[in-house]
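User: For a benchmark we're assembling, each entry needs the component sequences followed by a predicted structure for the full assembly. Here are entry 17's components. Please fill in the structure.
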Amino acid sequence: MTTALFYLFAALLIGSALFVVLNRNPMYSVVALVFGFANLAGIYFLLEAYFIGALQVLVYAGAIMVLFLFVVMLLDVKPDKPRRGLVHLDRWWFAILVVLFLGLLLGIVPGAVRLITSVPAGHEADIGNVERVGQALFTSYLLPFEVAALLLTVALIGTVFLAKRKI
Amino acid sequence: MTNLQSTAYFLPELLITGFAVLIVLIDVFIGRAGRNRVIWTLSLTAVVVVGVALYVQPVPGEALFYGSLAADPFSRFFKWIFLLATAIIYFISPYTRQLKDTAQNEYYLFLLLVMLGMFLMASALDLIIIYLSIEIVSIGSFVLAGFLKSDRLSNESSLKYVIYGAFSSGIMLYGLTLLFGLAGSTSIFDVQEALANLPQGSELMALVALVMILVGFGYKISMVPFHFWTPDVYQGAPTTITAYLSVAPKAAGFALLLRVLGITFGADPSIPWEEWVPLTGLPFGVLIAVFAALTMTIGNVLAIQQDSVKRMLAYSSVAHAGYMLMAVTLMNAQALQAIMFYLAVYLFMNLGAFVVAIVVHNQFGYDDIDDWKGLGFKIPLIAVPMGIFLFGLTGLPPTAGFIGKVYLFAVLIAAKQFWWLAVVGVLNSVVSLYYYMRILKVMFMDGEPVDKTVSDHPAMTATVLALMVPVLLLGVYWSPLLELIRSSLRIFSPGL
Amino acid sequence: MVVPLHHIIAIASLLFSIGVLGVLFRRNAIIVFMSIEIMLNAVNLAFVAFSNYHGNVHGQVFVFFTMTLAAAEVAVGLAIIISLFRNLQTSDITEIHNLKN
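Assistant: Structure for entry 17:
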């Protein structure tokens, strides 16, 4: 049952990601991405990462995608015109390099992971527990936590500064 | 070390944060009149105070914050570079015409926060800190690049910067995931251990992870082929910010590159850095050598074709990243020393060249090379130092640039490896001669002598002259700097 | 969890590739940002999967920070798009070529 659900979520996730990249209307893309992220949250739940799953719905599907939707509507972005082609290629050699590398990535990494993880690692109890994540965040990861707070401040001031015509 | 104990060794960073908060608050309480002046003074004070704190700070025996940060002499050397660069940029900002009529409070604030991010970059021992510190620097720089927001060029450069930045940090993040997946821990020492014990047949995964991480670091030091943002951002951003980006984040990128790649992809962290070798089976040297050769060549070839001085200096900074990458191929103590020496020298030469560009823009509003015609006669006090800086950037004696380049080449020659790379490096230096000398020729050979010379604000002239002194002095008497670097070559390792 | 780890990693790699291709080939800046979000989510998926395999929370903590950063980056990026849109009336990145010589 879990296995079947996982592959279902994964297929829907990949499908909606493809839809985001391949269609012309940004509005549809945003909605498809929200749907994809909801599926990803499902996968997180299956992987026992309940806290992250909840964050995925709240932060990603909720906050970030709403921001996208907001900007798309605010700027009234029109769908790309069909005659102009979907893709642009000004640095073709770089694109070829990246595509080759992606092939390498898809070819090597899953196989290598399979080799490496043939031995199961030690398992601690209830890793998805919010308590465990919280404990890690406020002890050994306290510094990154504070740095992230600072980073959000930087982003906040920066956003206000850039988006406002005159301060 | 626990969090509370660590704060004793974390004073410079805490002070930066404190001053940043202070600037935000002052912004609220002080009226528009005279605000720029107050915040400017406060920012310069911040740099001085942080410098004092850095100077008196003791060296801890272990890593800070549960193994996240190292406050070792290595990181301290880079922190001095960041402080110096920030101080110079702060000092010249009020005299820059481009920044007139802008509210400068955010400008100073973001420079301070970017400096904090670079402090963290120089001492990161943890994958999360690596990522977060790079992002602080990036986001701060995005805003600074778009600082002239009514200017379309500034806007566009900022957008390009964000897109390339987010893209490359995404790729780097995937590399970090792979490392985490191998080790099950975010400490770079655990990652090294896991990489050293990879099962047979999965060695290529280390290579894939290395390339992906190099994308992120390469973006920061503008390594080809992740340099696309460089010319556009350098041209579009305010020139003071361009000068800053070409020096400080590049040094931070190298600090991260040397420490993190040296530890994670080294064969054994317990052997001294003098005998550094990469993981067995990992073509580390060859990979970096190819990137170095590409970076130098493309940087120099494209620099020749530029007519805008800012764009030319942008491509020249790409080429300089290539020269320094040459030494990264070997990554031993000698290479580290050569790179640190070159970074220190490069700080003075490159900042100097950019400050001259700012002065020229202040006085005449020029950016095109042909407009620089006869500047040697019009504004000799600025043009002569520019000649020295250009000599240094080319790597000609008797400037410090020559000594720096000698050390970089000596690394390859002493190791008797990568001869072809040294040859490429020499050829590139010859090519760079062409476009640096083109500026010199335009300034001194073209144009007519004029009766009346002009001069910019004394503070600017003083800055240019002050930057010229170390470029000349370190060219003949460089042993104090070398001693400082030697004593800074103690990189934290939990075994020591 | 019965699904083998390398299947999850394969899916994450595929998702990542889709995101990269989106960034490379689409010309609308907003779609490009969405593709970057897809990349970051692929990374998150890999982190959670590895975290599950290793049986510790470090990977999940990392995802927590990635999400924070993704939000920050998007906010700044969209602010720049808005500011650019005000001057240019377009979000098509191919129309941004003033800077090329």
